[in-house]
């Protein structure tokens, strides 16, 4: 694995094997003191291994820690990102037993209609993307992880990427339509959480812009067709069996069945 020392290579291998074997590892196997830059190098190495020889494709990114409350949980002053590969895109049905310690969040999904650039302003980003109602199911390769792992551990584990569910994408969405957009999460017809898009760095497109610039600093880009899960409106809830619906006012809704 390029640009990693032997210890970092070992950590990337441990995380990849945990992913492939669907077996969690003690979080102590990845040092809590791991610095963010080192953690991203490990994350990128794991992603490279997943996508090598066409096993999977890089299908997008998820953005985490987009509210002060979630940043405080992990003692961070900025968001962070993780990679979404082929297996992360769900058809809206999840077997609970196939996950480790899953949570559920409500998030908007941006879908790139063309490559995005670090020089794009907010308006350009909106013109270059579609927006879809979404659900994210974070999951981790660590035992007993939330919120008991460090920032470096989160980053190395691809920001605890699990699954995303993408609803019907819409074109020509304006800045004002996404401003303080209400989001609600229901389970079996009963609302269990809700808040507005203002929880996502003040506005979800701010999160998208942050990601594009952050990726550029790592020599990466959001390419045409990629999906970006932009950050949660709510604090994560533990995933349970049942029928979930995430609704976003005029942007519509999306469902998830957990068996």
What would the keywords be for this entry?
26% strand, 2-keto-4-pentenoate hydratase, Fumarylacetoacetase_C_sf
Total helix count? 7
Question: How much of the polypeptide forms β-strand, as a percent range?
Answer: 25-35%
Q: In total, how many beta strands?
A: 12
Radius of gyration (CA) equals 17 Å
Terminal Cα span: 37 Å
Uncertain regions: pLDDT < 50 for 5+ in a row?
none
Structural class: alpha+beta
Instruction: Give the integer mean of the pLDDT values.
Output: 94
Could you give a short account of the major beta sheet? 7 strands, mixed
Q: In sequence order, what are the helices and strands, one letter per element? A: HHEHEEEHEHEHEEHEEEE
Fraction of helical residues: 25-40%
Rough outline: globular
Can you walk through the features of this model?
By secondary structure, this protein is α+β, with helices and mostly antiparallel strands. It is built from 7 helices and 12 strands. The strands form 2 sheets. Strands 1, 2, 4, 5, 6, 9 and 10 form a 7-stranded mixed beta sheet that branches. β11 (242-247) and β12 form a beta hairpin. The protein is globular and about 50 Å long. The N and C termini lie far apart (37 Å). This is 2-keto-4-pentenoate hydratase.
Topology:
Blueprint: H1 6-21, H2 36-51, E1 58-64, H3 68-73, E2 80-85, E3 93-94, E4 103-112, H4 122-127, E5 129-137, H5 151-156, E6 163-166, H6 175-178, E7 182-187, E8 190-196, H7 204-217, E9 227-229, E10 237-238, E11 242-247, E12 253-258
Parallel strand pairs: 1-9, 3-12
Antiparallel strand pairs: 1-2, 4-5, 4-9, 4-10, 5-6, 7-8, 7-11, 11-12
Helix pairs in contact: 1-2
């Amino acid at each position: 694995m390029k640009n990693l020392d032997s210890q970092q290579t070992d950590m990337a291998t441990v995380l990849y094997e945990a992913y492939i074997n669907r077996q969690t590892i003690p979080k102590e196997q990845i040092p809590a003191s791991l610095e963010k830059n080192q953690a991203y190098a490990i994350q990128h190495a794991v992603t490279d291994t997943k996508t090598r020889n066409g096993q999977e494709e890089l299908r997008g990114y998820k953005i985490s820690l987009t509210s002060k409350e979630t940043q405080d949980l992990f003692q961070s002053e900025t968001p962070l990102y993780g990679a979404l590969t082929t297996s992360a895109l769900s058809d809206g049905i999840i077997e609970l037993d196939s996950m480790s310690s899953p949570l559920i969040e409500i998030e908007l999904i941006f879908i790139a209609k063309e490559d995005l650039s670090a020089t794009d302003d907010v308006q350009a980003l909106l013109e270059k993307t579609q927006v879809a109602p979404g659900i994210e199911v974070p999951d981790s390769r660590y035992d007993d992880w939330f919120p008991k792992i460090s920032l470096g551990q989160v980053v190395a584990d691809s920001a605890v990427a699990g699954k995303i569910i993408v609803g019907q994408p819409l074109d020509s969405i304006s800045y004002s339509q996404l401003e303080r957009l209400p989001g609600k999460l229901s389970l079996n017809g009963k609302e269990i959480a809700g808040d507005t898009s203002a929880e996502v760095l003040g506005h979800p497109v701010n999160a998208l812009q942050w990601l594009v610039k952050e990726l550029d600093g790592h020599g990466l880009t959001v390419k045409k067709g990629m999906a970006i899960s932009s950050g949660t409106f709510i604090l994560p809830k533990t995933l349970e069996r049942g029928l979930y619906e995430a609704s976003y006012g005029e942007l519509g809704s999306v469902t998830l069945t957990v068996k």
